[in-house]
Amino acid sequence: MKRIVVLVSGNGSNLQAILDACQQGRINGSVAAVFSNKAEAFGLKRARAAEVPAHALAAAQFADRAAFDHQLMLEIDAYAPDLVVLAGCMRILSAEFVQRYAGRMLNIHPSLLPKYPGLHTHRQAIENGDEEHGTSVHFVTEELDGGPVILQAKVPVFSDDSEEDVTARVQHQEHAIYPLVVSWFVDDRLTMRQGAAWLDGQQLPVEGHAFE
Ligand code: GRF
């Protein structure tokens, strides 16, 4: 059974989708632990409710980013994860951290990458009058929101949409595609090689797997 460690900073609805998929056998693995840089993150409560060890590490307790990341790596490695999943982890991770989990760390970013890396993606899509928006699951590399895309889900944006409307529509898709990608990884179908994502031995295009 593959071991998954999840990093959250907030609500943890993507964590919940992954916990549920593990419990229902849609992911052939288990969440070994959840970490948060915010002690009050609701994601930690979700972990405890699922009887998964939940840990908070406060950046303020460490001298610098390197010291924080070093401790986080030690604590993560105690769970010997096959996969590290960033699920709303609102912290920029050091190069050392990213390198340690290279090829076995995933993130979900709420835009159709490479469009809108960084914050406030839904607001930007609305303000730019985009008719289409979405979310991307990608391998994590040192480039922020820049690693190879594995799978995207698209949603329409309507002219009278609020940011909340778009967020809800995108999150609905996230809860479907993130567990799916995690299941591919734990089933040994997914790898990162030569700066690209590969599924079932096929190199995926820049926008990820074409999911019809
Ligand atoms: C998600 O929309 C994800 O794309 C982004 O942060 C949000 C986290 O939501 N990285 P949640 O904490 O999983 O509910």
UniProtKB/TrEMBL annotation:
Active site: which residues?
109
- Provide a GO biological process annotation: 'de novo' IMP biosynthetic process
> Any idea which positions bind N(1)-(5-phospho-beta-D-ribosyl)glycinamide?
12-14
Residue ranges of domain Formyl transferase N-terminal in the record: 2-182
Q: Where is the signal peptide?
A: none
Site (Raises pKa of active site His) location in chain: 145
Is Membrane found in the keyword set? no
Query: Which terms are listed as keywords in the entry?
Result: Purine biosynthesis, Transferase
Q: Name one Pfam family in it.
A: Formyl_trans_N
Which cellular component, as a GO term, is one annotated location?
cytosol
* EC numbers for this chain: 2.1.2.2
Instruction: State the family it belongs to.
Output: Belongs to the GART family.
| Cross-referenced NCBIfam families | PurN
Tell me the protein's name.
Phosphoribosylglycinamide formyltransferase
